[in-house]
Amino acid sequence: MTSSSTPREHPELRGRLRDALGADAVTTDPDVLAAHGRDEAAFGSAGTAAALVRARGTDDVRRVLAVAHELGAPVVPQGARTGLSGGANAVDGCVLLSLERMDAIVRVDPDEQTAVVQPGVVNSALSAAAAEHGLFYPPDPSSWEVSTIGGNVATNAGGLCCVKYGVTADFVRGLEVVLPGGEVLRTGRRTAKGVAGYDLTRLVCGSEGTLGVVTEVTVGLVPAPEAALTAVATFPSVADAAKAVAGVMSTRLRPSLLELMDGPTIAAVNDHRDMGLPAEAGAMLLVQSDRGERAASDIAEFAGVFADHGALDVIEAESAAESRTLLQARRMVHVALERLGTNLVDDVCVPRSRMAELVEGVAALGAEHGLVTTCSGHAGDGNMHPTVIFDRDDPEQVRHAELVFGAIMELGLSLGGTITGEHGVGLLKRRWLAEEVGPLGARLHAGIKRVFDPRGILNPGKVVE
Amino acid sequence: MTSSSTPREHPELRGRLRDALGADAVTTDPDVLAAHGRDEAAFGSAGTAAALVRARGTDDVRRVLAVAHELGAPVVPQGARTGLSGGANAVDGCVLLSLERMDAIVRVDPDEQTAVVQPGVVNSALSAAAAEHGLFYPPDPSSWEVSTIGGNVATNAGGLCCVKYGVTADFVRGLEVVLPGGEVLRTGRRTAKGVAGYDLTRLVCGSEGTLGVVTEVTVGLVPAPEAALTAVATFPSVADAAKAVAGVMSTRLRPSLLELMDGPTIAAVNDHRDMGLPAEAGAMLLVQSDRGERAASDIAEFAGVFADHGALDVIEAESAAESRTLLQARRMVHVALERLGTNLVDDVCVPRSRMAELVEGVAALGAEHGLVTTCSGHAGDGNMHPTVIFDRDDPEQVRHAELVFGAIMELGLSLGGTITGEHGVGLLKRRWLAEEVGPLGARLHAGIKRVFDPRGILNPGKVVE
């Protein structure tokens, strides 16, 4: 059976997986493997996988990790592959371990305000299940209609609501995690509080599949927010808008969304569909309050702050429908930018007081390298998504785009920021992670990795080099 | 100089510490050492320390950890020693490393809504410094007027506000941590968000001094809450009160405090000072809303829930002064119970739906062992502080108190809970931690401990056995 195999065909690994899981569960078709070889990162290497396993339950994951651990074969866990850092990219000879079929909402407990879900549950499905009980699962990455909770946990995903509600890990109470060798770890708690021992739940959240494979997630839910209203304002410059953001955040109110689009982003949206955004605006802010009967007075206060900081124009929605219209420009950013070329999306988070310097610095880097750059993102958190637009068929542009991508992270670090606010490190940001955490931090990362994964089979080459 | 020393006098360790820090910084007076040998846990062993160092800054901590690491001498970090689990108790031959003198509020940044403090800053001092800027540092352990931020971080302390705001770690953004050998680690971020690498900040929070010594803490602050109002209700039984708690938590409103006192607690408070609490009540609930102009309607809604669940009596405060009066009974619990004997305070957190079973089970255990027990605590989180009252001079009572203490944790675990909601594991709960996290969890704890502290000098024998 294996006599005609070449090393590239990984006969032992494939055979052992088929023995353990059944032949149907193991895909080795090269086209299928290639189609599953990458997430949505605009560049970064991807290797050639040996097999794809679509796990049907924790037992399948255990079997894969037992075989892989024994053979020393790499395992790359995958959700919907909507990540932007290459964290789900194949490595040579790996098992791609897809969790997408483990998509059961195990239960929603309205009394405890918790839900238990498998990792393949799509974020929006969990949100909908919570809403049926008048409850709310806040984390809302832009990919929320396609990305999975497992992927959200792996990257500790954020979103628009973070400014008020926090990131994914803030809602994760406990995990079931399969470790190399196939042992099953249960971390955390089912209760509202719990401080027993080291916080292994938080350690696994955001570890991007390098410490274990998450097979079940217990999340906390909160009461559903009340009706939301939105206001929008344009400003002559990002510096003005940044001051207005500081003004909003220094009120006693906490907005449920506070987004910024810079001039080039506004221009791209205008080019895509004329929404009547003022061409002369250097920046636009969108703000929301979800406090029901107090939303109108909240956004009136925010609008006042905008006016005090030199807004060119302020529009306050008076209804949910108007609010949706106002948010359309923000929702259109992704599509509008994709029309311009390949997008390399960065994810730098800086102290709010340094945000204008970040946005201005990104524009200067784009100009220096002859590339279009834009900045938009979660201004209330200082978390920008600088985006470099390039032509992936032009090697010079690719080279410059990579240089700008790195220079943006250096700039973020120099402003007291972090290289990633919500997307993770993956493949693309390892070098800068080492810079951010320093040699001692890197040594601790490597040590912790060895405790969980002594043979280094889990998503090797991601996060830690 | 060392020729007449016995081994108990640790001449090498003391000499090296004096050389590194100056003779003034190192205390070896046996009475002083004995006075610093324990925290507030009602029992648990305490060893004899070799020296006490009151660190004046990070450099002192580095020097202590360099010397101790080289000599393999244990180091027990201490704050205000208000812990309840023996986590700060001396071990034989250790250096007691007090952080109390490192009490500078380095800065409060109102724009970023952050503060940077040294570990010896008392919780109430940070709260006051934040309040000067209209900001709020929510974590409020009962000890908040004496306990330090370093100790709060070490135990991941909670408090009354957790039901709305969360525990200490939810507000910690970054840490400076000195590791054995004296290397200085900086974890986390200064920004609102950040997911770069493994969450070392959370790993150190709640690790009770077993992974490193925290020398600086960056916390996030939130806008100051608005005026608060309180309501109080009594119920025939804990079961009724527990249902009312579930009712309150299933409204769309989130109270800023939701506390329970059981019948024996009410009786103890009544005995201490007659506050007119109804002797026939089986339980009392206190609830608060801190939403200013909406507080009155919030507590009216809570009061309605109480009435619907069979409250004997409901009182809604109409002013801040009335609210304070209503909370007096809760504030008096500690003093009232201390009058009855030595208090062994447990800290079990269970799903809210199991809270009545916990309280009833604690009463049954007390009856079985012939000891008075009470339950009070943070009902909104399911976090109770069952308290065993005993006479520490009666060996039989001590023995039974220890048995009840353990049985309460077993009960909590059997109800799907955790052995500690906010006090930590320390010395007293190690055995049950092993049970809660299981053999694999324990192995990971030991592995992580070795990564940070390969010679095992940091607070040995605490948390992990």
TrEMBL record, chains A, B:
<dbReference type="GO" id="GO:0071949">
    <property type="term" value="F:FAD binding"/>
</dbReference>
<keyword id="KW-0274">FAD</keyword>
<dbReference type="InterPro" id="IPR016166">
    <property type="entry name" value="FAD-bd_PCMH"/>
</dbReference>
<comment type="similarity">
    <text>Belongs to the FAD-binding oxidoreductase/transferase type 4 family.</text>
</comment>
<keyword id="KW-0285">Flavoprotein</keyword>
<dbReference type="GO" id="GO:0003973">
    <property type="term" value="F:(S)-2-hydroxy-acid oxidase activity"/>
</dbReference>
<protein>
    <submittedName>
        <fullName>Glycolate oxidase</fullName>
        <ecNumber>1.1.3.15</ecNumber>
    </submittedName>
</protein>
<dbReference type="InterPro" id="IPR036318">
    <property type="entry name" value="FAD-bd_PCMH-like_sf"/>
</dbReference>
<dbReference type="Pfam" id="PF01565">
    <property type="entry name" value="FAD_binding_4"/>
</dbReference>
<feature type="domain" description="FAD-binding PCMH-type">
    <location>
        <begin position="45"/>
        <end position="224"/>
    </location>
</feature>
<dbReference type="InterPro" id="IPR016164">
    <property type="entry name" value="FAD-linked_Oxase-like_C"/>
</dbReference>
<dbReference type="InterPro" id="IPR004113">
    <property type="entry name" value="FAD-bd_oxidored_4_C"/>
</dbReference>
<dbReference type="InterPro" id="IPR006094">
    <property type="entry name" value="Oxid_FAD_bind_N"/>
</dbReference>
<dbReference type="InterPro" id="IPR016171">
    <property type="entry name" value="Vanillyl_alc_oxidase_C-sub2"/>
</dbReference>
<dbReference type="Pfam" id="PF02913">
    <property type="entry name" value="FAD-oxidase_C"/>
</dbReference>
<keyword id="KW-0560">Oxidoreductase</keyword>
<dbReference type="InterPro" id="IPR051914">
    <property type="entry name" value="FAD-linked_OxidoTrans_Type4"/>
</dbReference>
<dbReference type="InterPro" id="IPR016169">
    <property type="entry name" value="FAD-bd_PCMH_sub2"/>
</dbReference>
